[in-house]
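Running co-folding for EPU.
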Amino acid sequence: MDKFVIEGGHRLCGRVKISGAKNGSLAMMPAVLLAPGVYHLKNTPNLRDVWTMSRLLGSMGVFCELNDNNLFMDASQIKSYEAPYEHVKMMRASFYVLGPLVARYGTAKVSLPGGCAWGPRPVDLHLKGLEKLGAEISIENGYVVAKAEKLKGAKFHFDISSVGATGNIMMAATLAQGTTLLTNAAIEPEITSLARMLVKMGAKIEGIGTSQLIIDGVAELHPVDDETIPDRIEAATFLIAAAMTGGRIELEHTNPYHLASVLQKLEESGCNIDVTSDNILLEMDNEPKPVDITTSVYPGIPTDIQAQWLAFMLKANGISKIIDTIYTDRFKHVPELRRLGANIDLQENTAIVQGGKQLSGATVMSSDLRASASLILAALIAEGQSEVLRVYHIDRGYENIEKKLTSLGAVIKRVKTDLI
Ligand code: EPU
């Protein structure tokens, strides 16, 4: 198992190219189950979660090959309609195959994901939505079994805006008989890009980019070539890294529009930001100011940067409040950050950070993807050497993170270790 050894105290300066969005690719890949043929997805990030999805689709008969960020998928011959526990337990996004399978083949068996590192993450909305479209759902031995002769268009309101449930139900509705109206649908860019891919495949979807989607079911879809959007969370993580080390960074191949809420918060903290088409230039000449954030659905501050923002606020002299309204328990990084000397008071879904105190290097343990990013960021400003264990979490969602950080001037090394 790998760990990172990081020497803190170096300014990050330079240019970095942002990779394709993990959560964009993970939503688009299962769409190949909707129509036979060969697909090409450009700008697919080379990440563990993409490999996991490739293996899952592979077990169903989809041939997947990732070459220089070009993902080729041949979905001509599907031989299984099952997503086994061994895949789903590794990655909840595996649940995305449920909607396409039941819509096209009338049957699907998908393992229930179970808990996650930071608490419960239910799938009730995925199931309710599919039931609304006429699927019969039962839970058997830890698996969701869904059956439908033909899904039928229906009205469905998401009680909570859900990225995954919107993607799942939208994919299913493209092949349902009649019209589906989805309200309070997620409008995260990764879902909007999935909707655009489905339209390219021949789906009829109106209201893309809004929370009300009208989907007219069609008899069949066809394969397409498409491209994954830039990863807004990776981009935000690098911007925060530069801001907290007093650096200057230029991000290439990003979408500043997707980052509007984060860029505004970075400006409030004292960063100078310049945006040109798909580039973002950030310069931090000041001591960062404390800035509160409250996570919310898009276009608000993403929950996926809560942990990284918390690390940033350790550098800001004063008190800041970080509230996560999406995943109220997602604070597993807090006890580890305290090991670096952080002063954080956790009250339910609110972290109160007393920043400005010099952190000192220590060995810390990653518990999940964004928590690992937060620990790496904190280690970059800690005095001396830190070790971040269990970096397989970071490999799920950041392509070549240590190479990118090294190119910006960070001192970070990946080391093999027997420790777990
Ligand atoms: N929810 C329910 N019932 C459901 C589904 C969701 O109550 O059936 C609740 C969740 O518990 C949560 C809220 O709805 O409170 C939003 O969850 P959502 O369904 O939107 O999350 P997700 O689809 O499981 C995706 C990303 C996550 C990201 C969230 C929120 C992918 C593969 N995952 O998860 O990404 O945090 O949306 O934006 O797209 C990450 O990349 O580190 C990550 C965890």
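Result summary
The first helix runs from residue 22 to 28.
The mean pLDDT is 96.
Job closed.
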